[in-house]
Amino acid sequence: MRHSATPYLYLLPAFVVYAAFMLYPLVRAGQFSLFDWPGFGPSTFVGFGNYIDLLSDDRFLASISHALILILFYSILPLVIGLVLAAVLRRGSVRGLGFFRVMIFMPQVIALVVVAVAWRQIYSPNGTLNDLLGAIGLGGLARGWLGDPILALPAVGVIGFWLETGLVMLLLLAGMGRISNQLFEAARLDGAGPVREFFAITLPSVRGEITTALVLTIIAALKTFDLVYLTTSGGPGTSTTVPSYEVYNRAFNLKEVGSASAVAIVLTIMVFLINIAVSRIGEERRTPR
Amino acid sequence: MTLRPFNRRFFMAGTAGLAGAAVLSGCAPGSTPTDQPSAPAPSDIATDPASMGDLELVVWDQEVRGSQNDSLVALNKAFQDKYPNITIKRLSQGTDDLKAQVTLALSGNDVPDVVQVNNARGDMGQFVKAGQLVDLSPYATAYKWEERFSPSVLSKVRYSADSTTFGEGNLYGLPQTGEIVGIFYSTKKLESIGGKEPETWDDYFSLLDKAMAAGEQPMVLGNIEKWPALHVYGPLQGYFVAADEVVKLGMGNAGASWTDEPNTAAMDKFQEWGEKKYLGTSPNGLDYDPAWTEFTKGTGVFLPGGSWLGTDMEATMKDDLHFMAPPPSKEGKLATTGGTGIPFSVPAKAKNIDAAAAYIDFITNDDAMQIIADNGGMPVLRTKELAPASGVQKEIFEAFDDVSNNGTLLPYLDYATPSFSDTAGQGLQEVLGAQKTGAEVLKAFEDDYTKFTGA
């Protein structure tokens, strides 16, 4: 005998877990963000005061702009490079395809702490990068990369680029694997070269994968914390601080849990909005007019 | 394969629900204000652990590094041997981990009996304000701690009950070890530039010029972590600014200013060091530990830093390594950043407060100081007497004894306000990297300080 509630009962266990570990903390964070509270002891209700303070908070605004810049390194560049790499690997004339795939995907597998420690070594004033520059006669460019007010953020971005490219490439390769070879044959018979093939067949076929890759990497860029925490602690000054680092710093160092929660909520909304935009654009392109 | 993490309708409903739920759930986070726990009267307290019955004493500490861990292990064993009725349950973790955990734990009911809490306003000050630590004053009377410790050491664990004043009032913990920030140098390097140990700050400044001219890096600093620069700036400030003013600024008590002439002079000098690359080409891009490692391998002449670096650097540099307290200040007195290791405190909700106080007494008494020294630590008391016969440790012990008894141990600047560690770390990085001028950074310091003291 079927009851109209039956399907919902099947969903219930999963929903309970989801609600307990996702929805409840989110609601609590939203609630905390309306209070002035050091994390213990009494709290004061301040309404949207924490949010209003954020509007004139230079550190917070800087962190948002840094996160947006990181999207370039985490999403856009990996997508461009990943597309080219995947297209080249897809054409199949590369020997040792599996080896290259593994190498490019490797950064995703390594624990982020290890990645950060290794890159700190590379960027250090006496590190590998400066040695390399010296060896090719560009010693004048050597510097402490993570300590340079202008270059520290790109330096962190490059680590993100190195991390995300493998993921993006793998997604795109999977998509390209599904394209029928007949399409390429037809195009070649029509006289299309590799470049034409890429724009006429490969690119349109992997739109879905591109959207997925963008959504995943943009989320990674916006909520990046570990890399910044482990490499620069947001420094020098505030040059590399990002919203997630601000959440941590406010909650645990400054003991401003209300403000930290407000930053977290703003960040969550930002992630949602940007990804709505990305998915919308991706979907529109897919529906034939 | 497409990922659709959400659709718009769900998202809108979600946010509306979120806001609604937050407004509707009227209960505020945190507890309602409680009355300050009143300290037990001296007559109520028990001071003989042997008569306290069988109990388990929970101790949370951050003494995880070599000699610190060895000393505490030895002290715990000695305590349990003496009082077999008390079992110590020790939980040891890194400084930052403990700090994060204590913040969460102290507001709950399951608290340790003894815990290490940093003196700073952002830590101990906040907990005192929330009524989460026991005022140990009655125990200080019973155990005669005021005879054991100098007033300057005890001042760093004293707060008024509402935590507005730091440095006077109730007693909230006791430290075991001493710390002093001074100047390490390599004799070989110093001789190679034709210098000897500086006796005045002017000597020091001219030695830095000399080192630079000779193609040596004058000072070594790894400041990616932001706080190391405080240990360069502290002693420098101690030269230009009167000690009692630094104490006020450093403890976040009203009546001083970051933007007066002496403070400006100190910051100007610091800015000059940054511009002239006296601290290396990129101190902000170098990690703290690699920096001193490079110093041991022959980079730089001086390394301004804390006593805790002595043991590790001596292992490589042997008798080439020396330590000195910074030369006397403009007032003609010894003054440098320093103080004590992180003090041991008792949470207000601890189950065995008497036993906890007895334990703290035990690990800070004269015999304990001996055990700490035997295990390679620098005891906060009897320092000169317990100094090793030779080597850099002897110089460090003597410098600490000298400054703590004849001069002033200036507070770490991050004690000042709950946010000062952030403000100072950020500001000093910005001056070193020429992102901001010294004047701009001092203004930021002053804003943080006046916002706190004025509130």
From TrEMBL, chain B:
Signal sequence bounds: 1-21
Keyword Transferase appears in the UniProt entry: no
InterPro entries documented for this protein: Bact_solute-bd_prot1 (IPR050490), SBP (IPR006059), TAT_signal (IPR006311)
Keyword annotations from UniProtKB, A to Z: Signal
Keyword Phosphoprotein applies: no
Lineage: superkingdom: Bacteria
PANTHER family tied to this protein: ARABINOSE-BINDING PROTEIN-RELATED (PTHR43649), DIACETYLCHITOBIOSE BINDING PROTEIN DASA (PTHR43649:SF12)
Protein known as: Extracellular solute-binding protein
